[in-house]
């Protein structure tokens, strides 16, 4: 989100928070969120893809609502209004090509009506087929999860993204020499997919509350958290939507405070640090150990202020409309061990991974009695952190970053077990010294891990490590 | 089912009406396509530019964009108008300049020396070359 989009989001949220009540608030938020899905999508070199990708996001939302809701739920007034809002806005945006000389909300011209209409017909046929089938059978839910994961894998893998771009370019008779893995920048899909998988898993486990289409769609594509999270839980989000909300002066001040802090973190601190933060060019050009540490520290703080700044802005804007999004960061660089760091860094992602991967995986692996417990811990930590690494991108460097943290968590776990019976002290000065030592050690471990995260190649990362340690 | 079909019918009808009305009012579309192309060029927008040109002209367009990478570029009093046709191409001529600034030194590229060839593909007017 750029400054213009943030400013427009604040104004729209203020208006909705101040004027609308009850169901009207939900409908207004749905309208804003659907508009944001199109507006926030950046331009893509493939013609009309900045229309098709948001449209596919909304189609997935509708389809998954259909298969997770009760039979016939779509016939209710609220759900028909929700369906009309989503289809109506997509249609108006497509029609804008015939009315305005410049595209409305999109970076490029939307597709011709006939293409859009075929898309709508295909979507409708699939939905009608689903209404005839038994929709909540295990295979439909499992297939949807696999479909979302498959799309995520394609988008996160540079090789598969490139091949997909080549495929679409060939289909459109465009030169394939210009194809790039960056051609498929599907805004917010990582977050949309994780929210939808959470819904599908909770449906499989029988703990998903019934949501109307407007509630469901607003939750998945909620405009403040569309591009950078946090990943809320559907039942918590829906409760906020259903609660009566009046925008008070106190609430506005709290929201404003969060937005101002977020803007300062992102656009002042993070953007300033970006000039000296570690990157591929600096990794090759800088040879001094001291400067390399400065670039690494700059990167560590830049990524924190950038991400937590966006989160603060999202939390502030959401607060204006009565939605209390969860915190994503709790002073992570002040934690004295790696477990605490991961409990305070990108908290909503780690909670998601814990709920839907780490805990089920641990339960499964504990079934194998012959595996020693330290091996189970190692496998569990490593697999979880590798998954978090792969969520950021399917590259060697993200795998190395995940492995770095997985091994770090394992070592810290073993050390804690070993130390708790041997190194206990009541001396407060010693406790403080150990606390400070723990903070410094944890921060430097995390900062060194950013070497893999910030750079594109393992070889470059190795060179930076050598320079950092004067080798 | 009936309600769903009703929504679809309304969407279809609205589309048909707007398509018909919109098509009639877009006589300056080829000239507008060139202006949009020039704007994307000086903005060095590598994502938008390929969507505004024919596939045969995509490499040339990106090469032209590359030539502005080291400078600050802007449009100065640019206006385009259709000047004729050439087979399946519509010809567009522009007045005004692209101003390329480097180190506070301006260099003007006169656009009136070029004629842009514009073609309609899948309903969109695309820049397909110059002469």
* Beta strand % of chain A: under 5%
Q: List the secondary-structure elements of chain A in sequence, H or E.
A: HHHHHHHHHHHHHHHHHHH
Q: Based on CA inertia axes, which overall geometry of chain B fits?
A: globular
Shape of chain A: globular
Rounded average pLDDT of chain B: 85
What's the CATH topology name of chain B? Nuclear Transport Factor 2, Chain: A
Integer tally of domains of chain B: 1
- What is the rounded Rg of chain B? 19 Å
Give the helices and strands, then pairings.
The complex is a heterodimer of chains A (471) and B (131).
Chain A: H1 3-19, H2 22-39, H3 49-68, H4 77-99, H5 113-132, H6 138-156, H7 158-171, H8 189-204, H9 213-220, H10 234-242, H11 249-273, H12 280-285, H13 289-320, H14 338-342, H15 347-365, H16 373-392, H17 396-419, H18 428-454, H19 458-468
Helix pairs in contact in A: 1-2, 1-13, 2-4, 2-9, 3-4, 3-5, 3-8, 3-9, 6-7, 6-8, 9-10, 11-13, 13-18, 15-16, 16-17, 17-18
Chain B: H1 2-24, H2 29-42, H3 58-66, E1 72-86, E2 89-102, E3 105-110, E4 115-121, E5 124-130
Antiparallel strand pairs in B: 1-2, 2-3, 2-4, 4-5
